[in-house]
Write a sequence for this structure.
């Protein structure tokens, strides 16, 4: 029996955003997958960037407009927003979407970052040991090369000093 095709589930929350011209747009604020939580941290202190990272619209983007984050796939039925899209929102909508994105992603992003720090602390001693193992070998290989380069540079004729520029 064939396995069902892989489908990606998108967690998040539907909302309505209000544009500066008072029109409303249905949007989806996404709980980002773990692989994109580093982006959440990068955008955390910039409301508009986080809103554009986590928000998708039902409207198709204008022809020729690229998504703000082209490497992150949108949920089915939604389109990624283009760069600067959040500049078209009322302040209240930016605040609403930011709060939704923050609620869906921040605690997970912090936990992910703490895990990354713990992992780095775990492997740091191993990296240090590896460096101490490899460094002598690298120096043995590089030493003769550096000596040859020194010999070559010393054997080249010296160029005469250029006279001082006339005043």
């Amino acid at each position: 029996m064939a396995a069902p095709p892989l489908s990606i589930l998108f967690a998040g929350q539907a909302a309505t955003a209000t544009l500066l011209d008072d029109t409303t747009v249905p949007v989806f604020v996404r709980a980002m997958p773990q692989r994109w939580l580093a982006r959440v941290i990068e955008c955390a202190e910039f409301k508009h960037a986080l809103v554009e990272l986590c928000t998708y619209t039902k409207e198709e983007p204008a022809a020729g407009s690229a998504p703000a984050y082209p490497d992150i796939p949108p949920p089915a039925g939604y389109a990624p927003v283009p760069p600067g899209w959040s500049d078209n929102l009322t302040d209240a909508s930016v605040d609403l979407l930011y709060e939704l994105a923050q609620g869906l992603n921040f605690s997970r992003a912090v936990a992910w970052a703490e895990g990354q720090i713990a992992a780095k602390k775990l492997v740091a001693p191993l990296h240090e040991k590896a460096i101490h193992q490899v460094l002598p070998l690298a120096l043995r290989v590089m030493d003769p090369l550096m000596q040859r380069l020194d010999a070559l540079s010393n054997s080249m004729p010296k160029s005469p000093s250029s006279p001082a520029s006339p005043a």
Notes: The longest strand covers residues 12-18. The mean pLDDT is 85. The two ends are 89 Å apart (CA to CA). Strands lie at 12-18, 24-30, 55-57, 79-80.
